[in-house]
Amino acid sequence: MLSPIDDKEIAVLRDWRHKLHQFPEVSGEEVETAREVVSFLSDTQPDQVITELGGHGVALVYEGEQSGPAVLLRCELDALQIQEISDLPYKSRNDGKAHMCGHDGHMTMMAAVARQLHRKRPLQGRAILLFQPAEETAHGAEAVIADPKFASIKPDYAFAIHNMPGLPLGHIAVAPGQITCASMGLCIKLTGKVSHASVPEAGISPAMAVSRIIAALQRLQAGEIVEPGFRRLTVTGVEMGKRVFGITPGNAEIRMTLRTPESNAIMGLLEETLDMARKIAAEERLTLDYSTHNFFRACVNDNDAAAIFDNAVERMALSRVTDYLPIRGAEDFGLFGSCSKSALLFIGSGMDHPMVHNPDYDFPDELIPQGAGIFLGVLDQLLGSTHQKPTETLKTS
Length: 397
Description:
- The protein has helices at 7-22, 31-41, 103-119, 140-146, 207-220, 265-283, 303-315, 367-383; strands at 48-53, 57-63, 66-76, 120-121, 124-132, 157-165, 172-173, 177-178, 182-191, 195-196, 232-240, 247-248, 251-260, 287-296, 300-301, 341-350, 386-387.
- By secondary structure, it is of the alpha+beta class.
- It folds into 2 domains: 7-180 and 299-387, Zn peptidases (Aminopeptidase, 3-Layer(aba) Sandwich), CATH 3.40.630; 182-295, Alpha-Beta Plaits.
- Helix 7 packs across helix 8.
- The mean pLDDT is 95.
């Protein structure tokens, strides 16, 4: 199914990626991004277009001539609440929002696949291109799968690609089994009593409890690499009191992420963390409330799906990195493993490339044809291809 993606095609795709980069929308707000996807790919003549899937998700379906498996390829619509720091001519125009995880690039890889499917339809089965909302909050995959419209496109196989700084540019990391960690956000709120700063003993300050809890988190951690028993707790924010000098604080909030290799193990770590925090809060005469957020289940690659990915990589003669997986990061794609044979693949953005979620990150355009080629190799193995003469010209600008 893979057709050569020439320089003219790459230029069209690159320009579209830069357009997406300029107008990022965060999780749950991807209205215009979804419309842009439908508009840009309408002339690829999908057999079905499903919108508002699990929120603002879009699925494009390309039917084969014969019956066969349903193969879902997934990318993400959403950006992050980060202020971009760059001099790029296509830098974000939406203040405080930016594509700092490369989802603009992932969408462009998928657009390249759609444009090739316009030229060569599957021989059998269905190719389903999913532009998923709300990946960054871990709500998107769950919402898509729960949407009644998903039943009509429930896949036999599901595949996703994520770029990864820290891997050599264009190098591939894929394997069966454990790929990413499970992750959960935890917010602990401590409440005491304010006082005048001259008589702090008249109040109940959470300051000591905050410092004790943060120190105790280190004792709950285990391991440096992802293996059975690995546990990581990372403080992501602390707020306490008001921005004044005459009042002692009466409340505080500690935000953190918890990580474990297995999805079920994170609940045990949560309970241990709360038991520790409750004990300290009680000793400091504080009340404690908490909330959990953004539960990412671990990604575990199916053996068959991982082998299909690996074969597509071999066909393209791309270099591999064999000692990279599993990683500490989290991805909500893992939930698709509950309804299909699924696999996630990482493609390197460069050893010295800014990390994802950094304010100076930008997706490397060089990865667009490589990622698209891998996806097309997957479709070729599972669905085959048959020539289809285009009935209209694809967008060139």
